[in-house]
Structures are given as C-alpha cells and as structure tokens.
Amino acid sequence: MSVALHEGELCCLLGANGAGKSTLLRTLAAFQPALSGELLIDNRRLNDISPRELSTMVGVVLTERIRMAGITVRDMVAMGRSPYTNFWGRLTAEDDAIVEEAIHQVGIVELTHRQISTLSDGERQKVMVAKALAQGTPIILLDEPTAFLDFPSKVELMMLLSRLAHEMGKSIFLSTHDLDLALQTSDRLWLMGKNMPLAVGTPQELATSGELSSYFPSPHLTFDAASMRFNIEL
Amino acid sequence: MKNTITITGLLLAMLLLFLASLYNGSVSIPMSAITDILLGRGSANHPSWQYIVLENRLPQAITAMFCGASLAVSGLLLQTTFRNPLAGPSVLGIDCGAHLGVSIIVLLVGGTLTTGQLTLGGFTLVMLAAMLGALAVMGILLVLSRLLQNNVMLLIAGMMVGYLASSAISLLNFKATAEGVHAMTLWGMGSFSAVSLDRLPWFVGMSFVGIILSIILVKPLNALLLGDNYARNLGIHIRQVHTLLLFTTGLLTAASTAFCGPIAFIGLAVPHIARLLLGSANHRTLLPVTLLTGASLALICNLVSSLPGESGVIPINVITPVIGSPVVLWVVLRMEK
C-alpha cells in the first residue's frame, strides 16, 4: 500500500482511538522510527534527511501545552524561525518580517504582545499554527488541533487551515475526531481502523464507496451519502 | 532598551554589593585603610588588616558571587530542562548527590574540608566525588523524566533520590569520627568563607566553564521551553543538548556544593526573581539577569551573615530560606490561578 500527501491540500486523518493515528503522526514528524515501510519527502528518504534540514521541511502543532510563564505570542511565533537563525537565535529583519506576516495570516495581530498563558485554547492553537507558518515548511502536521476547542473555534481553525493550504500551497495534515467538520472542510481523508487497511480518498469518494460508514461501526450511527452526514438513530 | 537598563542596573548593584562585602565584616577596619589596601598601598601599621581584607574578605566576596551565579544558572537550566518551575538543584536532590560524594571522601577516605590541611590531590578527589554524585542524580532524573509525564511526579522522584543520598550520608556520619562529623556539619550549613585564596582559581575556573557552557546553550534552551518534541521539530538535537545540560548543571552544582556546602533556595528562587524583573522567559536576556541576580543575592546573604559583628558569622543556610521560601510560595500561589 502506498499513500501520499499533496501540496495545496488539507488532509484529515480520521479513526477511532487506538487505531494508530498518533503513531502515524509521530512517525511522519520523525519523532519515532517507522514500524515498517518507507517515508519519502520529495523523493528523499526521511532517514537521509538531517534533523536540521527536516526542520525546514516539516512543521508541527502538537497537543502538549506550554506551561512556562513569560512567553509572549510574538516570542512563540518567532520560535518558528529557530532553524534559520544564527547560533544565538537572533532574528534578522527578514525573520521579523516573516514573523509579522505569519501573525497577520493567522489573524492574531491583536494578540501579539499577550502572554501565552493568558490565551484561550482556540487562540493558543492559532498561535501554534502561526509558529508553524513562520517555520516556512511546505508540510504542516497537526495532532488533534481541534480537541478541547468550542465549536465556533473548531470551525474557525479548520477554515483557517483550509485557506492556508489553498492560498499558500501548503500540505496540511491533521488528525481529528471531528467527523462532520473534516467531511466538510478537507480535500482528502485518510481513514484508519483497527485491523483494516488505510482508506484514502476525497470525502465524496469515500462516501459513495461506503467506506466512510464501515470505518465508524456503531449500531446508532448511519452515514447518509446524499447529505454527507452521519445520522444518529435513537 | 528596558532589558539593557535592567542588566546595567543589576551589574551596578552587584559591584556595589561586592565593594560593600570588602568594606564590611566582623572586624571593623576604617574605610580609608581598606581603600589603601585594595589599591596596593598597604597598611604597614596593621598587617592583620591587610590579611583580613585580601586573604579573607576578597576571596569570600568572589566566592559568594560565583557561588550565587552558579546555583542560580543551574536552577534556571533545570527549570527549563524539566519544564518545571519548582525544579532546582536542592529540590531535585542534585546537591544531595554532590553532598554524598563529598561525604564519602571526607568521612571514609579521611579527606578534610578545613582549609590548609588538604593536599591538592585530596582536594581534587573531593571535587571529583562531588561532580560524580551530582551527575549521577541528574542522570537518574533525566531517565525518569522520560517515563514521568507529570511535573509533580518528577519533583517527588527527585526528593526520593535526595532522601536516599541523605540516608547514605547519615550512615557515613554514624560510622565516622567526631571531628569528621563536626567538619561535615559545619560544611552542611553553607559558607562562602571556606575557599582560600590559593584554591579560589579552581572554584572560579569551574564555575566559569559551567557558565560559558550555559551561555552556549541559550538557543536550544529557548526551544526546550516548548517541550522536547517541539524543540526536536525546530532542529534541536535533543540527546546532545540533554547531555550538555547534564554536564553543565552537574558542574555548576558540584563546584558550588563542594566549595561552599549545599546552599538551598538560591537555585530555586533566583530564576523566578529574574523572570519577574524581565517579564520574559527568553534565555538570551533571562540567563544574564539570572546570573547577576544570583551573584547579587549571594553577596547580600554574605553581608547579612556578618551582621552579628564580633560575635561571629551566621551560616548561609540560615539566611537563604528567609529570602527564598516567600518567592517559592508566591510561585506556587500563582500556579494555582
């Protein structure tokens, strides 16, 4: 089996808990070695790419929270420039411009000088997306970015990611449990299930093939391909 | 701009406190005489004054400065490495490791901490033992930190490792001679006066190397604030950085512990005071501010310790908790919010 991420696409990884979503994401981010198989970025093996070079190719947004006090939004976004800055981490005028641009793109200009610890979950996720943007990587991986967000924030974040993929040509890949949202906003879905092969396709393709419903087996859940929605049967 | 003012202010404060430490002491000497001695004009009528200022107060002030700076920087590195605001060399039991190393040499092998009686070889042995003890505890903690996700758990683990070391120290004390125990007890109270002028270069050298290493680590330290995975994704070589951090904190803690005794609270409290002064966790400014604040605070402790005047000096570990524990309480209260 062979699957690929494409530039300019928002791709969602869906699957039940324990299906291996996190493992897959950790492997893609090179946090752990592949259990089997091979990963290629631009036809180069992931293992052959140095950590330093990889940091300019893949940016991540993780679930772990930053607890330390004294980090402003701008500091955090500027962290994304680390792979490019000198030994002391000093930002050049160009770095500064890229950081400003990332903050602007994500729409958090008014938060620039706030402390990270004072932000809401939704705001914090946007800051981390801005960090990944400032990192200037063609690929951005996000581990359950919509978890713990209220519904409007979830929608806003997905719309933001979709816009970044389409307008900036980024390849954005995220894991999520928000089925409906993923169906409506993503260009492509990867479905994972225990003891099932990975299913990949556009939401439409997976809906018509019936795979969508088979990956979410529940006696109370039916998928309606016409409306592209899961219905709960009481 | 604001940072420059803070750093300049601290630098001035440190210099003033340093001078105050030379002009103040349990023996009262006229200021003009001290100025003469410091400018090399000597004080022919009072050779003892010359001795007190140059052989006693000067090394003591330098020791206080470097000890405070070392412990504060070590505390900052630990808080960032473990992403734990309550981490510090004494909380995590790292100085207990150094303490154990020193105890083994002093009480078993028969080395001694009192000045003058120890050969350079014996002294090197004490230093090495302190270093090994500190490194061992730090190594255990780094391994445990991979297994323990919870911040509080790591603190508890550190305390337990510290207790184990203390139990070994108690056993050694139980088996040792009365003089050995007395020397260790005095050492355990903390003092900046135990470093003689001829040993000062060793202490300053070790601290200096540790401080230089920590300055080199500024950029990776900033990335580590986000956690190991984010740092790795930013191109930081985690294992390399951890090894260097292990060595640096070990060196800084071991040097100050072996020379001045296990001094509590400076490593834990000073980084918080520095963050408060700066309002930023960026190590490029936080590290120098922590260093200067640590040095200044240790000089204040040194000054306070000689307050009783002719009746002797107060041990340093009587003073540091008075300054340190309110800061820690404040940090804990703020974490609750």
Describe the structure.
The complex is a heterodimer of chains A (234) and B (337). Chain A is α/β, with parallel strands linked by helices and 234 residues long. Chain A has a domain at 64-136. Chain A has nine helices and ten strands. In chain A, a hairpin with a 4-residue loop joins strand 9 and strand 10 (229-232). Chain A is globular. The two termini of chain B are 31 Å apart. In chain B, helix 4 packs parallel to helix 6 and helix 8 runs antiparallel to helix 11 (238-260). By secondary structure, chain B is mainly α. The longest helix of chain B is centred in the first third of the chain and has 35 residues, at 47-81. Chain B has helices spanning 2-23, 31-38, 47-81, 94-109, 120-147, 151-175, 178-188, 200-216, 218-224, 228-233, 238-260, 266-278, 283-305, 316-336. The model of chain B has no long low-confidence stretch (mean pLDDT 87). Classes of the chains: A alpha/beta (234), B mainly alpha (337). At the A-B interface, helix 2, strand 4 and helix 3 of A face helix 9 and helix 10 of B.
Short description:
The complex is a heterodimer of chains A (234) and B (337). With 234 residues, chain A is an alpha/beta fold.
